Every structure is written in C-alpha cells, then in structure tokens.
Fold histidine kinase.
Amino acid sequence: MLNTLSGRFLILTTIFVMLAEILIFVPSVARFREDYFLARLERAQIASLALLADDMITEELEQELLTNAEVFNVVLRRDEVRQLALSSPIPAPIHATYDMRDPAPWVLIRDAMVRLSDTENRIIRVIGNPVRDGGLLIEITMETAPLRMAMIDYGLRILLLSAVISIVTAALLFLAVRVVLVKPIKAVVRNMQRYAAAPEDARSVITPGSSVIELREAEDALATLQTQLTGALKQKERLAQLGGGVSKISHDLRNILTSAQLFTDRIETSEDPTVRRLAPKLVNSISRAVNLCETTLAFGRVEEPAPRLSRLVLADVVEDVLDGERLAAGESDISFSADIPVGMQVRADGEQLYRVLGNLVRNARQAIAATNQPGEINIRAFEDEDAWWIHVTDTGPGLPQKAREHLFEAFHGGARRGGSGLGLAIAAELVRGHGGRLELRHTDETGTAFAICLPKADAALDTD
C-alpha cells in the first residue's frame, strides 16, 4: 500500500487535511471560550436583574441564581454606580482578569491555549458589556475547571469531526486519483510491457488517447519512441539478412572474379595498343573487386578491417579513381580534374583510400548526371605539419535535406534520389579507421565539397 502511488496519495491527503483541521481547531477553541464567557455574563446579568426587580430575595434564592449562572459574584455597573448584585464566598484569590469587551483575536487564541494547558482550578474575573444596554459594565467571578472541561469536550468533538472529514475526503481523492491518474498510468505500463515482449510488432505501439494533457504528452512521446525503435529494429533485421546474403554472394563472386583474373593475364600479351593500355587498369579493377569481396566476407564483425598502412603516391590512386569514373560517365558532359602536388605521398591503405575517393566521386557524378546539366568534379590535395588534406568538390545540385540530417548514416537517404547513403557511411568509417575524419565543408545549389583529413601522427591512427 505504501509503495503505490494511490496509497501514498491517500496518506498524504489524510495528513494534510488533519493539518488543515488543526489550524481550524485552535481559533475554534478560542471562539468557544469567548462564547462560554459571554454566556456566563448573560446568565449573571439575568440573575442580577431578578434581584433588582425584587430587593427582598432570600439568601437561598440568591445562591440558586449564582449556581445557575455558574459564578461566585456578579457586579453590575448602572448609572455610573458599581453595585455588587450577587455574591457568595470565593474559595481562592482571583488568579487573573479577562476583559471580553473588545478582545484581540491573537489574545483570545493565546488565553485559550493557556487555559487548556493549565490543569489547576483557578478563580478568574471576567468583564464584559451587559446585553441590550442593561448597564455600563458587568463582571463575574468564576472557576476555570468547568471551562476547561467544556473546552476539552468541544475540542474532542472538533477533532473527531475532522477525522471523519479527513477520511471521507481522502477516500474520495483516492478513488479520483485511481480513476484519473493511476489507471491511465497502469495502462501505459501494460503497453510498455506488451511492447517489450514484441518490439518488432507495430501493433503493440501505443495509441495516445488520454484526456489528461500531461498523460497525453507522455503517450505521444512513448508512441514516437516506440515507432522509431520498431523501425530501427526492422532495419537492423534487414541489415542482418542483407549481410548474410551479401556474404554468400561475395563468396561466389570472389570465385568468379578470381577466374576472370586468370584470363586477364592472357589479355596483357595482346599486341593491340589499346588493349595493352587498358589491360593493367582492368587487372587493377578486378583485383580491387576480389579484395572487396574478401572484405565483405568479414561482414559479421560489423566493422571494416584495420587499414594496412603504407606510403603511396596519392596521384596514382586519384588517377585510377578518375579514369574509372570517366568511363562510367560515358557521353555525359561531366569533366574530371585533379590538383595533386607532384610526388605527394600519403600514409594510408591504398585499397581503402581508393574506395573512399571512389564513393565520393561516384556520388558526385551520379548527382550531376541526374540533373542532365554539365558539371565538374575536382580532387585537390595539400599537406600541413599535422595532416594530409584531400578535397573532393563538385558543381552538382547539393545534398538533399534528408542526407544532410543523417549524414554518414547508412540507409537514411543518400546523396541522390533513391540512394541508400551507404557510400558516405562506408567512406566515413574507412577514414576513421585511418585515425582521420571526413567532413562536409559546404553544400548548396552551387555544389558540394567534402574534405578528408589523414593525420600524420602515429598516435592518431585507430588500427585496433
């Protein structure tokens, strides 16, 4: 019970209501004491008026009047004359005098609390105004024991009533909280448990329907989260299936390419100048395809293999990339250019760097070709004290908005309509494996520019 939201709310409600009733109890008891004094003053005035009406009242009747008024003495001031109207022996000296003609609220509360805490029977004097202008002043002498007992009895009835009100109020609030708050929360929890059992099932995604604004916001947020998570899980499942299929295809494709590699050895012996010029490039392309297939077979590790670093001439890699893309461009009006310092060497994995540049240039070529407009692609390189820099720029239409929002994330939209974004994701991962980074410098309707940073420091390399 104490560990439930409704149970704790019930207890807190009871406590707060009791505190509120206690704050009401104190002034109520003070008011009761004031009314008690005023009632005794009125009784004493009535008794004194009876005496004034018949001056020959007997001593027994006078004592009966004082007993009914619950006082010892009555003093009435009329016509500026102070008269002892009724009197009887006082058992003890007067302990205190209380003026009830115009008391301050805090004085009434203070005196009431003092009276409740004082257990001794005191003799007190009370002064007040006679009712109905029956004189200028009336004062009585009385004992405090009956007053205190009456205050305690009244206070207990107030506390009992407070307890009943607290219990009824807490019970109503308990039921209201269970219906308005706890029940909807439990429904959300049940949905979360049901969703956790089958997160791939889109039918288990919560349907927001609460009329409480805060709960509705929580349901909306949960629905969005579940929808995104379900989509992510389905995508991961598709990627896992794709990985298995690609591995099988790559295994067989590697065997086919290995056979083709053997045939290219015979092509190199051809006397045709064109064949002799193109044969090395064909051999290199087939070798790269075989290497890529072997790398794909390691797909289960969910990461690219560590780069095999060596010193290589950057211009050779760039030339191979551009030659391949020129052939792919065919008759389209796309020009390719390179601005590489003569003899510039970088420390990198040649095959992986070829894939990085190939992905970037291929994306640029496809984006320009989709516009049916002429365009230019340029690869520029330079170095400073800390790193080698390679910039790939184009005059294409720029990256789509979805590609900008999910840059370097696979299957979240590529650089062209219908693209998967896998090329940029692979390029970024390969560059990170070199300890470097792939950056998007700018993209708009005038073109796109990527920058590859390859650090020179050995400590920057991530070869784990």
Observations:
- The chain has a mean pLDDT of 79.
